Amino acid sequence: MTYVAVEAILISILLFIPNIVSDDTVPIPAVKTELNGWFQSNVKPSPTLDPALATAEAGAKVIKVNADGSGDFKTLADAVKSVPDGNTNRVIVSIGPGKYTEKIKIERTKPFITFYGDAANMPTLAFGGTSAEFGTVDSATLIVESDYFSAVNIIIANTSPRPDGKRAGAQALALRIGGDKASFYNCKLNGFQDTLCDDKGLHFFKDCYIEGTVDFIFGNGKSIYVNTELHVIPGDPVAVITAQARQSEAMDTGYSFVHCTVTGTGGNALLGRSWMPFAKVVFAYTDMSDAVDPKGWSDNVHPETDKTVFFGEYNCKGARADFAARVPFAKKLTDAEAQPFISLAFIEGSKWLLPPAKV
């Protein structure tokens, strides 16, 4: 059974009210308690939305998945399969509580899909794929190649054993997001090495939790992470949070972490490494616990990249935010240098970013 979401009706009305405008140039506030007010004021339906997205939201429908058989489908794979190729309407997949042991891929031909769970009883998508079996980027529990994807209140986990440094191909992704204009709200990504492949496209993460050990956020996306916990699982000789894959000065990609928190223990977590020579990563207003290595960053034993990477920090705090011990090629950003990374203009948000769905 499907029905038109009330939210979609409201969106279709709001789109034609000229004074409802999403402004992606307003900086993210320096005070964390002002985040929600800033978000509500600047992320909303408006005439600046991509026309295809506006049309899709106006025709939104909901389908239900419940493992107990009480929904339209029992599996997420069947729900995704029901979405037609060339889909033009928002399809909200409302997922009942429980654990769904599935490996799911949303093909590029199926845009405008939302995975939605109950915040009070979040569903878990889990699978144990590894690089040895599927290849690294295809080991993910959830692979999204389509545009305009959104996930709300979802746990995505790769249940493979923790890599021990001896088994080849032990890295295992929870999520690979390779579609453009994707948003994640209140989602948890659980894994060890390579938890999240932020592969390519414009992406937005808010109020999320991402855990891992080595390179647990990697890829060549252009993304903003807001109020997201980056949890370093202790135990490895070296932990690495980001391995951003920008390969040339001409590539318009990078990661910006704003009002995030780095948690964990061990004191050996690097904020990022130059996996690729032009990696671009910025941490702003972020609380850095003593899980972080004082030197902060690594050139991956490639000193020639010291002149090409862009590893920046801006007004961070916490036990390991002191810049005194940072590597020489890290940048302590000025107000002007930080501005491009602390507004939604970084990801062209006014064209596509909407608040989380409600069902």
TrEMBL record:
A Gene Ontology annotation in the biological process aspect, one of them, is: cell wall modification
* Pfam families to which the protein is assigned, alphabetical: Pectinesterase
Q: Which residues form a coiled coil?
A: none
Catalytic residues (UniProt):
D215
- Give the signal peptide as a residue range, or say none if absent: 1-22
**SUPFAM superfamilies referenced in this protein's UniProt entry, alphabetically:** Pectin lyase-like (SSF51126)
Which intervals hold domain Pectinesterase catalytic?
64-349
Q: What keywords tag this UniProt record?
A: Aspartyl esterase, Cell wall, Hydrolase, Secreted, Signal
Record's InterPro entries? Pectin_lyas_fold, Pectin_lyase_fold/virulence, Pectinesterase_Asp_AS, Pectinesterase_cat
The keyword Hydrolase is annotated on this UniProt entry: yes
| Entry EC no(s) | 3.1.1.11
Question: To which pathway does this protein belong?
Answer: Glycan metabolism; pectin degradation; 2-dehydro-3-deoxy-D-gluconate from pectin: step 1/5
Top EC class, one word:
hydrolase
Please list the reactions this protein catalyses.
[(1->4)-alpha-D-galacturonosyl methyl ester](n) + n H2O = [(1->4)-alpha-D-galacturonosyl](n) + n methanol + n H(+)
Q: Gene3D superfamilies from the entry?
A: Single-stranded right-handed beta-helix, Pectin lyase-like
Which cellular compartments is it found in? Answer: Secreted, Cell wall
Could you tell me one molecular function GO term of this UniProt entry? Answer: pectinesterase activity
Family membership noted in the UniProt record: Belongs to the pectinesterase family.
Record protein name field: Pectinesterase
Which species does the entry assign this protein to? Ilex paraguariensis
